[in-house]
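Need the bound structure for KG4, inputs here:
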Amino acid sequence: MKDMYILGIESSCDETSFSIVKNGREEIATIVSSQIDIHKDFGGVVPEIASRNHVKNVTMVLDECLEKAKMKMEDIDAIAVTYGPGLIGSLLIGLEAAKTLAWIYNKPLIPVHHIAGHIYANSLVKELEFPLLAIVVSGGHTELVLMKEHYKFKKLGGTLDDAIGECFDKVARVLGLEYPGGPKLDKLAKEGKPTYKLPIPLKDDSYNFSFSGLKSAVINLVHNEEQRGRKINKADLAASFEKVAVDSIVRKAKKAIKEEGVKHVIVAGGVAANSMLREKVKEMGEELNVEVIFPPMKYCTDNGAMIAAAGYYAYKDRRISDLYLNSKSNG
Ligand code: KG4
Ligand code: ZN
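Answer from helper R.:
Posting the output first, comments after.
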């Protein structure tokens, strides 16, 4: 079969990214323009500012990507784009860019769900094998997804309230860490021990998660100790929080692996960068004798390569859209 080069476009939050991927597996070139420095003074992403910066960046990032790949738009076979979920104003910029390019160069347009992108980031590491369990842990999602073949996703369960990344960021903020707090909390936790007793979330037989109780428990503990004039050991509290959050994910993943006869486990989304999660999921793989794949750090956070990789398999599944494609903030 002829090689297929897909241009992947991602703009769902505060990263503008274009990437070219060959046959869903081989990254040719990726450019990511991050707005972290712009938003950190606000303690989080400001949607209106994010979309304005996407507008500013979009053509530059595309040009840089083509230049790095030493390719022209004519060499591209199809255009894959995140249509949702995400910030509506941000999504629209990537989507309009994709539709315009698809129209001008007469290329197929492939809509990609952002989480499918995070899952397929792993196909840039190794060919996916089925049945596969995807542990999806991002700023907006916490889900266990079962796949028996390419591009068929069955959600086994998900969070009933906050996403794990959101919870990491809020706990980090109460510990005085700068946005985005997840990576900083990860670093701090390494210096501490899990000595604080925190409530174990949703200790039931479902595949669902709940993180808001855990988050509130940390916030209350910090406020109570402050009111009593007692000092908190921030590293120990970070380690305690991380342990409870990670354990709750691993416990439910183990159940899914055993009950669904899973052969391959992948971790997807920004929180896949977390050291304790990586360590515990690796241990789980050894214990249950299943292969575990993590995306390399550069594919954990939002990027166009994961969208291009997912786009290849979506294309093979004939998921091609017309130019009336619209973005959906809730996916
Ligand atoms: O997947 P992502 O880019 O966003 C969504 O698609 O929703 O993930 C971003 C999230 C943020 O909450 C960030 O704090 C978290 O991933 N994150 C981490 C780490 N690196 C990123 N959380 C814990 N430990 C990390 N090392
Ligand atoms: Zn993401």
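Comments: Strands lie at 5-10, 15-22, 26-34, 78-84, 109-113, 132-137, 142-147, 154-158, 264-268, 291-293. Residues 114, 118, 138-140, 165, 168-169, 180-183, 186, 269-271, 273-274, 301-302 surround KG4 (ligand 1) (CB under 6 Å).
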